[in-house]
Amino acid sequence: MANTNLNGKIALITGGTKGIGLAAAQRLSAAGATVILNYSHSASAAEAALSTLPSDRTLALQADASSPSQMRDLVSSIVSKYGRIDIVLANAGIMPLLPLEQLTEETFDATYALNVKGPLFLAQAAAPHMPAGGRIIFVSTGVARSSGVSPPYALYASTKGAVEQLTRVLAKDLGRKGITVNAVAPGPTDTELFREGKPEAMIKAIESQTPFNRLGGPAEIAEVVAFIAGPESSWVSGQIIGANGASFV
After folding, report:
1. Where is the Ketoreductase domain (predicted)?
2. Is the pTM of this model over 0.85?
3. How far is the C-alpha of 111 from the C-alpha of 97, rounded, in Å?
4. What is the Cα gyration radius of the chain?
């Protein structure tokens, strides 16, 4: 584990109760940060996540990460309690895998709302309360820049393409305030979201296609998040940082 020092930092993680979000919460907490876990529905999952973190430096707050108004309220609650936000990890997302003929307008709207609209307006709400040295971290995916993915990924990959361009442009905007904006782009990672709707044979096939013959682990992605969140990354902004075991190169 790198010696990233986040003592005294206030970190907000959407979708923070499982998978990459929880792994990032554990990693940032281990580096000394106070971590606010945002969750959408399951209070029991939030309680289970909190049990893995220091009770004096962790808080769980419910809000719909696809709703700009609820993201504004979430930010207001955190600022009221802590006075600022230093790190935002916009991790909440969904990954519907549907062929073109099965796509609906409702699925399109819901996917863009959570994967794109929510992160954008969360950044808008948080930025005025972030001091110089603040970090905004989005989550993309290796499939956003690969033509070798299967057709059912089209909608999901398109949302992450939007996230990547937001990363580049917002980095120029918020750089004036000393805030960096980056995205981590995982490859196949062993999370509930990744496994959802995939039979075990498909999982094995994906593993066999990676150079390391395995899936990535959430903790491995969390290490990249910790670097982006830490002081060592002060000159890294507007970047899409792949964490994919050479799966997308």
Report:
1. 9-187
2. yes
3. 11
4. 17
